[in-house]
Structures are given as structure tokens and as C-alpha cells.
Amino acid sequence: MLGRGGGQARLPNSSINVAGGVPYGWLFRRVAVAVHHGGAGTTAEALRAGVPSVVIPVVPDQAFCGSRVAALGAGPDPIPPKQLTAERLPSAILQAANDVEMRKRCKELGEKISAEDGVGRAVEAFEELAKP
Predict the structure, then answer these.
(1) Domain residue limits, the chain
(2) CA-based torsion, 59, 64, 67, 72: positive or negative
(3) How far is it, in rounded angstroms, from Cα 92 to Cα 12?
(4) CB–CB of 86/107 below 8 Å?
(5) Alpha-carbon span 30 to 51, nearest angstrom
(6) Which of 7, 36, 40, 60 shows a CA-CA span of 20 to 30 A to 22?
(7) Which of 19, 68, 18, 1 has its CA nearest to residue 39?
(8) Is the Cβ–Cβ distance between 67 and 78 less than 8 Å?
(9) pLDDT in tens, the chain (132 residues)
């Protein structure tokens, strides 16, 4: 299991390596496409890494993030779990991996997000709101 999960899965194929926790900031910079649930933090890490996302949302906020990823051109439309098939997932992954314009938009978004001073901007906003 990747991310913050701690359990080890039992897999039928011994050639598959199951990792414990893996930091997404490290992992997503090393993949062509991130396939994930669409949580806010996971989505942010994929966008920051500049890679397309295939989102399989489980709860409404994840569906929202998946729809934003698609609207930004950073991934195909999210795939609800009930519509997830052995044909649809690889098709979405191939689309994300091979769409030159999508990859370009992801790279640009990643560079823009990485250049932001999020903490500094949050402090400025707080100070502005806290003025008497």
C-alpha cells in the first residue's frame, strides 16, 4: 500500500513488491501517470509533480478534485468505482501517458505550483483579514 496506509497486502504474484508508506512528493516525480483516489493532498502532490492523474474517487470531495483535475486538463475524467473496468482503467492511463498537450499542461501547472510561496501567501491573507 502506498501513501500513509500501513498495512501490507497479500498478493498472488510474488514478483510484485508491496511497499509500506511512500512519500507522494518523492514517488510522483518518478512516474508517468499517478492513479489515485483524488484526495486533496494526493491531488496536490500529483499536480505539484507535474504528472497527469487518473482519479478513482470514493467520496464526494474526491470526485470534486477529480473533476477539477479534468477541467484543468491534467487528467481524463474521473472514473467512479462502479464504472471502473479492466478496459476503462488502462484506457485512461494510456490517454494520460500519451496525450502530449495534457503532459505539457501538467508540467506547466507543476512549475507554477512549485514556484508559489503558499505559507507566505497564507500569512499575508491572514494579516489582511486580521486588520482592525
Answers:
(1) 24-130
(2) negative
(3) 25
(4) no
(5) 9
(6) 60
(7) 68
(8) yes
(9) 344 444 555 666 677 777 778 899 899 999 999 999 999 999 999 999 999 999 999 999 999 999 999 999 999 999 999 999 999 999 999 999 999 999 999 999 999 999 999 899 999 999 999 988
Contacts of 99 (CB under 8 A, 6+ apart): 52
Separation between Cα atoms, residue 47 and residue 50, nearest integer Å: 5
At residue 27, the 3 state secondary structure works out as helix
E strand or H helix that includes residue 68? helix 60-71
Residue 90: in which H helix or E strand, if any?
Answer: helix 88-98
Q: Which three cell numbers stand for residue 117?
A: 510561496
Q: Residue type at 10?
A: R
- The secondary structure element, H or E, covering residue 126 is helix 118-130
What is the fold, at CATH topology level, of the domain defined by 24-130?
Rossmann fold (3.40.50)
Cell 493532498 identifies what position?
A: 41
**Are the CB atoms for 45 and 28 separated by under 8 Å?**
yes
